[in-house]
Amino acid sequence: MVDNGDWCEVLPVADLLVRGARRHPDRDLIVFPDSRYTYADVLERATHVARGLLALGIRRGDHIGLLAPNGIEFIEAFFGAALIGGVIVPLNARHKASEIGYIVANADLAALLTVSDDRAYVDFVDVLHEALPSLAETEADAGMHIPEAPLLRGAVLLQGEGKRGFIGRSTLDRLAETVSPEEVDQVRRRVRVREAAAILYTSGTTANPKGCVLTHEALTRGPVERAGKRLVTDDRHISWAGGPLFHIAALSPLIGAMGAGGTYVTDVYFEPGRALALMKRERPTTVWPWFPAMMQSLMDHPSFDAAALDSLRYMFLIGPRVLIEQVQRTFPTAELVAACGMTETAGIYALSERSDTITDRSGTQGKAAPGIELRIVDPDTGAEQPRGTPGEMLVRAYCVTEGYYKDPVKTAAAIDGDGWFHTGDLYSRTETDCLVFHGRLKDMLKVGGENVAAIEVEAFLCEHPSVKTAAVIGRPDERLDEVPVAFIEIREGHSIEPHELIEFCQGKIARYKIPRAVHLVQPDGWPMSATKINKRALAERLPAIESSVGALQ
C-alpha cells in the first residue's frame, strides 16, 4: 500500500465550536483569571448572540463589526456571528476614533457589537460616538440611519445599557428569545469553507488600513492542523496567549486550541505578573509570547519562576538570537518554535521543524508549513533567487487572503495571475531550507508586533498647519523591535517645537504609531533619491543626530 501521508479536515469556524461542544461539552474552552467557560457554555452563549443577530435582521454574508477587549463578550460575539454565516470584522481596540470611523465605513458593516463598562480604561461607546457622530444622535429603536455608515442596521451592547444609539444587552437578550436555536443551526449548515469568514484590517502602504478578506478554510485549517499534529503533548493541549484577540497572532491560537479539543488561556489585558500567575495556575503546554517585549517583561518580573512553568512544551517567539538562546537555556525542555506569518496569510505560513537545531531556531524563521508554497524572487525581475540571496517572499496557499476588501487595485498589485501573494518582505534561504528575514520591501514599520505604515503617520502629521513635509522611519528598539521617528520640515512663517507635534498625536492616532522623536529638517536638508526623500539616508543619519541633540522620548 502506498503511504499517502497525512490528510486535512477543514471545517467552518462555527462548526469547530459545535464539534467541540458535542465531543467534550464540560471541558474548559476559554479561561480568564476570574472566570472559565466550557465548550457547552460558549456554544450556548454564542447561539444566544446569533439568535439576537437574526432577530435584528442580520443575515448570512452580512459584515459584523466587533470592538471589545479579550473577554467572554468577544468570544460569544465572534462565534455568534460565525454561527449565522456572518463576516466578522474585529476592530483594533487600540485604534482611535478616526481610524475606527474609516474601517466602519469601508467594511460596510451591517451590525456593530461592542461593550460599555464605566470602570474600563477606554469607553468604546465614547470612541464610537466620536467616530460616528450621527450615532450619538440616534435612538436605537427609531430606525437606524447613520450617514457615516449607511449600511449599518444595528449597534449593540454585549455588556451595558442606556447608551445613545445602542441596543442594550437586555434588549438583545429579549430579541434572541424570538428566534429558535434550530433556525441558527439551519443557517450554520449552509456555510461553505471557501466563503468569507472575517475581514481583518492591517496597515498598508496607503494612508488607511486594508481589509484582508479571509475564508473559513484560511482561518481554521492551519491552526487546527498545527495544534493537533505539530504541537502534540501527552496531556491536553492548553494554549496561553497574552495578545488581543482582534490580532491574528492571538486569534489563530484560539482557533487551534478549539480544533484540538484544548483550552485557551488569556486575560482582558497583558500584565506580566497576572500572566505568570495565570500560567502557573493553568499549566499551559504551549505559549505564544511572540515578540521580545512580552517575553522580556515576563522574564524580568519579580515573580518569574521558570520551575513553576515546567508544563511548557512549545514556545512561539520571534526575536534576536541572544534572546532566543537565553529563553532556551531558561526552558531547556521546551521547544522554541520559530515562525513567520502575516494577516494576509491568516497568520503562520512557515515554522521550524522538530529536527531544526537551536542555531536554526534562533537565526531563522522556519520552513514552509504543510500545504503552503513559497518562492523567493528578485523583486525587479521576478527571477528565482539562489540560496543565500535575499528576495521578495511570495506565498501561494489555502491561507492567502482573497484580496483587500473594496480595493481591486491593491489586490491586483499583491496577488498575481498565478495566485502568488507578494508579501513585500525580504527573505533568503539557508542550505537547510530555513528562511532568514532581511527586512521589509514595503515602507512599513513593525512596532511591538503591530504593522505601522509610515505614510499613514506622515499623512496625519501633515494635517498640522505648521508641517510642510514629514518622513517617518523606524528606529531599532530592543523591546518593540522598532519605533517610529519623524523628520519634519516646517512651513515658512510657522514655528513649532518637536514635543508639540508629539502632543498633537496624543489621543488621535494609536499610541504605538506616535513618533518617539521628532527631528526638524531645513528645506534644503533632505537627502533625496531622484524626486523622493531617501529614507535609508535618514536612517543612517539618525544615530549621529540623536547622539548630538538627544531624542525626545
From TrEMBL:
The lineage of its organism: Bacteria, Bacillati, Actinomycetota, Actinomycetes, Mycobacteriales. Residues 456-522 form the AMP-binding enzyme C-terminal domain. InterPro entries: AMP-bd_C, AMP-bd_C_sf, AMP-dep_synth/lig_dom, ANL_N_sf. SUPFAM superfamilies: Acetyl-CoA synthetase-like. This is Fatty acid--CoA ligase. It comes from Rhodococcus opacus (Nocardia opaca). GO terms for molecular function: medium-chain fatty acid-CoA ligase activity. Keywords: Ligase. Residues 19-405 form the AMP-dependent synthetase/ligase domain. Belongs to the ATP-dependent AMP-binding enzyme family. One of its GO terms (biological process) is fatty acid metabolic process.
